[in-house]
Amino acid sequence: MATYALQIAGLVLGGVGMVGTVAVTVMPQWRVSAFIGSNIVVFENLWEGLWMNCMRHANIRMQCKIYDSLLALSPDLQASRGLMCAASALSFLAFMTAVLGMKCTRCTGDDEKVKGYILLTAGVVFIVTGLVVLVPVSWVANSIIRDFYNPIVDIAQKRELGEALYIGWTTALVLIAGGALFCCVSCCNEKSSSYRYSIPSHRTTQKSYHMEKKSPSVYSKSQYV
Predict the structure, then answer these.
(1) What's the confidence (pLDDT) of residue 167?
(2) CA distance 50 to 26
């Protein structure tokens, strides 16, 4: 029962991480405009994402434009596109693998050892997905902070950390936690199955003892002859 609860918890964390990964990929709030110095035009907010940039006017109207060329983006955003798309595909693959390894799933049979291996695979893929999400989010955040404190960069070109980066860090931690739970469940199932097959039952031991007692040895038969 405890392992089943851990499976449900891991599946929930994996599902939340999958949704978060897709949300971070499509959100435009990776870089947001910074209101510092003479740049105090607060009725306009500029958002820059992986696929588009958006301009919001006085919290009323928002205009978004898809990037015309991938090569026009900075290197960190170019790499983040590919990594986040790969993370989205990996999270979906890990989630479906975890569903196949659940205790309540019947299409993969009732062998707990096989399901343990399936859950271990799902857990490893979830952990890898969390690391893949963590790399582009931290890379973009590092470039934003570096440019923000660079005196050479113009004030109008400086940006701040957007909401997508914070959601990305949270999503990475959730994915890693879900993967760790599945790995723990798989290890617990493997230990319990090995313990079950290594110790014989009391009934089997008693039965073998009676069989040895009833069957006389070859030496005792030769004495009667």
Answers:
(1) 95
(2) 7
